[in-house]
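Researcher: Sequence recovery benchmark, item below. Answer with residues only.
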């Protein structure tokens, strides 16, 4: 459970989804670090398959594949360009979204999780109209009231988002999981990075109930609407339609950016990713890096940071 909550909690990525017509629009969330994109970087790919950006210096090219933060499991995509670039690559760097509980902090992490899972069932705290909507959704997902044993609206929303994504066969692990396997088969070095889960669980506990309720309402609307938006965005991603891919679901990723420590985590992952790309340029040849699309293309995102360092960044339209 820790791993599944963590995997969802710490993804920071793609575009916000407009509210569906049959549900009221939730109040806006503040401080979205990826709200504004660098427009000249949002370019449709010219080659078959997903879009690639390139970061280059005199003797090295880093091929950057922007990936969805949420996608259908086992989604199909044209891998010809990827497999060609995998040949002879120095390294494959996967998205920096992994989390774990450090040994020294595991007791505190477990304690925070127990605090989040108390005071429920959550639906007992909802107004009648929202309770009816929530009961309908959780019933469709095959869950009973005891499955949400919390008084914390943010924690309830995290669990609901996990249940909705599991039932809809959506994942934040693809295509990185497949890329890892293909790289290992070719004996190409694979680099990943993990972050401590504990501070994020503590941050959920410190988030004001009003903000947590906004997040819960967004996830509830998302679960009511179903996975159509994500599936359409995945189809767009697979053919290099960057603008279409950015229309992916992103409700809880935006919520988690405003919890205590969320912005610090976002800043750290972007800085670490930019540093990893700059480091890959130090070895002649070429490398492959996977980065979630919106953090890649946002203002003060990964590519803009690299351009500020004086590195050359080329778009998918320049292939």
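Model:
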């Amino acid at each position: 459970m820790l791993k599944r909550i963590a995997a969802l909690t710490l993804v920071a990525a793609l575009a916000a989804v407009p509210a569906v017509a049959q549900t009221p629009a939730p109040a806006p969330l503040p401080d979205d670090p990826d709200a504004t994109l660098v427009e000249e970087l949002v370019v449709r790919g010219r080659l078959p398959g997903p879009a690639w950006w390139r970061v280059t210096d005199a003797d090295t090219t880093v091929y950057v594949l922007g990936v969805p933060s949420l996608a259908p499991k086992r989604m199909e995509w044209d891998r010809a360009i990827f497999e060609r670039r995998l040949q002879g690559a120095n390294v494959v760097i996967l998205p920096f979204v992994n989390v774990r509980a450090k040994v020294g902090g595991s007791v505190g992490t477990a304690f925070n999780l127990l605090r989040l899972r108390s005071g429920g069932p959550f639906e007992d705290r909802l107004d009648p109209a929202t309770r009816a909507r929530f009961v309908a959704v959780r019933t469709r997902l095959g869950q009973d009231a005891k499955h949400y044993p919390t008084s914390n609206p943010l924690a309830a929303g995290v669990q609901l988002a996990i249940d909705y994504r599991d039932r809809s066969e959506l994942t934040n692990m693809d295509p990185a999981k497949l890329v890892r396997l293909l790289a290992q088969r070719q004996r190409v070095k694979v680099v990943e990075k993990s972050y401590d889960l504990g501070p994020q669980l503590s941050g959920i506990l410190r988030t004001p109930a009003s903000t947590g309720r906004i997040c819960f309402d967004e996830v509830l609307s998302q679960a009511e609407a179903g996975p159509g938006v994500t599936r359409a965005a995945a189809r767009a991603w697979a053919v290099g339609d960057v603008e279409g891919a950015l229309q992916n679901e992103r409700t809880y990723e935006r919520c988690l950016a405003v919890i205590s420590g969320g912005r610090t985590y976002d800043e750290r992952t972007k800085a670490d990713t930019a540093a990893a790309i700059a480091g890959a340029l130090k070895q002649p040849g070429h490398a492959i890096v996977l980065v979630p699309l919106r953090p890649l293309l946002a203002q003060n995102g990964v590519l803009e940071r690299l351009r500020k360092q004086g590195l050359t960044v080329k778009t998918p339209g320049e292939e």
